[in-house]
Design brief:
Length: about 90
């Protein structure tokens, strides 16, 4: 009895996700935050600045999303009354 060799299975092609997301640089000076976000990719990126204030009575804030189109740089700003505990940027596809 002869056994035929089983065909070798080829692995399914895995698609790499398209690069996405603006590169953001955030600077905190006292109670002010400034972030510059540059989007080098062809898809738009909605960037949003979030600020957590250090004092319990100071109100944290979330800025409205700003669209950074392809090859575009946007500026985001915000502040607390006193010190800033942390600031970060979130990204969303348009």
């Amino acid at each position: 009895m002869t056994h035929a060799a089983a065909p070798t299975a080829r692995p399914a092609a895995v698609e790499e996700p398209e690069p996405f997301g603006a590169d953001c640089r955030t600077t905190v000076t006292g109670s002010h935050v400034v972030a510059y976000c540059h989007n080098p990719y062809p898809d738009s990126d909605k960037v949003e600045l979030h600020i957590e204030c250090a004092r319990w009575w100071d109100i944290d804030s979330d800025a409205r999303p700003v669209e950074a189109g392809p090859a575009q740089t946007v500026r985001l700003t915000g502040r607390c009354w006193k010190e800033i505990r942390s600031a970060w940027i979130t990204h969303a596809r348009s």
